[in-house]
Task: inverse folding
């Protein structure tokens, strides 16, 4: 038997009032500490929404790849990918974004909400070049709110615990996943061999 929550009053009654400190940590601009977390992060998840639905996309590079232009502006290179551009399509239709930053070894995460525009200015893109390869565009994110998330989720998941790491050969390969999803039209062992050779050469 289910007991769905259908309105805000019922939801708030179920969970109760948030702790004062959970409200106090949310601010409209970067503090020095929040800036340090972003500059130390090599990875974040970008959440967007558009006519085709929702998207959560992983973004990663060396620490500092997300540049802090000022306390309310982030610059993020759109590194080479598969050209689906799901996030960018969504941003064109709805500029609202959510970012979740992770720092290896740190159990707290950082959450940023705001709006984004896609900037393809050549000079801006060249400033993010790696190995002579510039991104095709840079996301300019205007921060509306920023706050840290407590450590519970990462502690429960043991994300950084070496003993909790899963052996890659214990799970399906990317070639297998692709073959299953495409009913055998794509993927397989040949895909795995090509991917292993190409990925290191096509990061940028």
Result:
């Amino acid at each position: 038997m289910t007991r769905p929550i259908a309105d805000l009053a019922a939801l708030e009654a179920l969970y109760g009032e948030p702790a004062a400190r959970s409200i106090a940590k949310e601010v409209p601009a970067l503090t020095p500490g929040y800036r340090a977390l972003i500059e130390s992060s090599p990875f974040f998840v970008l959440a967007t929404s558009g006519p085709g639905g929702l998207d959560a996309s992983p973004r990663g590079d060396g620490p500092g790849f997300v540049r802090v232009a000022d306390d309310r502006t982030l610059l993020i290179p759109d590194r080479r990918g598969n050209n689906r551009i799901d996030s960018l399509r969504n941003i064109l239709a709805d500029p609202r974004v959510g970012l979740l930053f992770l720092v290896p070894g740190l159990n707290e995460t950082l959450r940023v909400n705001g709006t984004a525009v896609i900037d393809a200015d050549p000079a801006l893109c060249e400033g993010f070049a790696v190995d002579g390869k510039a991104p095709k565009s840079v996301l300019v994110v205007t921060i509306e709110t920023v706050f840290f998330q407590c450590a519970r989720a990462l502690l429960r998941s043991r994300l950084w615990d070496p003993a909790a790491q899963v052996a890659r050969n214990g799970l399906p390969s990317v070639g297998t996943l692709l073959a299953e999803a495409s009913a055998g039209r794509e993927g397989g062992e040949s895909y795995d061999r090509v991917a292993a050779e190409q990925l290191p050469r096509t990061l940028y």
Notes: The CA atoms of residues 53 and 90 lie 8 Å apart. The longest helix spans residues 189-198.
